What does this fold into?
Amino acid sequence: MSTAEQNRRLMWKGATAETTAKPPDKIGPVLIPDQFLGWIIPVSVLLVWELFARLGMLPPNWLPAPTVVGRTIYQLAVAGDLWKHAGITIARVAMGFLLGASAGTLFGGLTGYLPVARKLLDPSLQALRSVPSIAWVPLFLLWLGIQETSKITLIALGAFFPVYLNLSVAVRHVDPKLLEVGKLYRLSSFQMVRRLVLPAALPEYIVGLRSGLGLAWMFVVAAELLGASSGIGYLMVDGEMTGRAAVILASVILFAVFGKVTDWMMTAIGRRLLGHRAR
It folds into this structure.
């Protein structure tokens, strides 16, 4: 090999090393950490909203500025109303979600694992899933009254169907080869479910729990808008009746914040359970 050719190869290797040593994503716009990307849109909306409100482009009795809404939340917290109503709403969501998720887990596991149970129960449950949530309200009020039982039942109904559907489909789609391996090792039905079926269905099951929790927060709004004397939904109705748009918007923001916090908690639990399979 000639000296000129060796020099050319050395120059090529040096150029390649330089290009690989400098990642292309460090050249250009300023990088934003991943944990802050989700804040870009909400913060931008709040800034534009505040600007338009201060310029008088938004009617204050319809859409008050974010600072006014924040001041309302602070006043509710100082007066103690925020913690009382928020605590009642969180308790309703927690009880309704636990009941609905437990029932969804039971029926989802049965219909996913046992073909006979799927043929017997799934058509009726799928038909009930198509009924709008608001259609259940008059019936629950008639059967259970306006006390806590009707509200928690409505929330449980909302949490039931996502958990049921996700778990049933996940169990049904477990790889048959995995089950054949369990049979080769002479695992019992209980061992098969605990060691093979549940780990394989866990990711979809966690997605169902998150969806059920989100619907529980949606259904608690419907439950508290009808016949409630406490809760964040009651604050919303009170703001509507008294013409206080800031209270209504504060209630909406509180629902969003508490819903996001509980979803983050469910996601963290899911990541811990999934381990290396979590993304």
Summary: The radius of gyration is 27 Å. Confidence is low (pLDDT under 50) at residues 10-28.
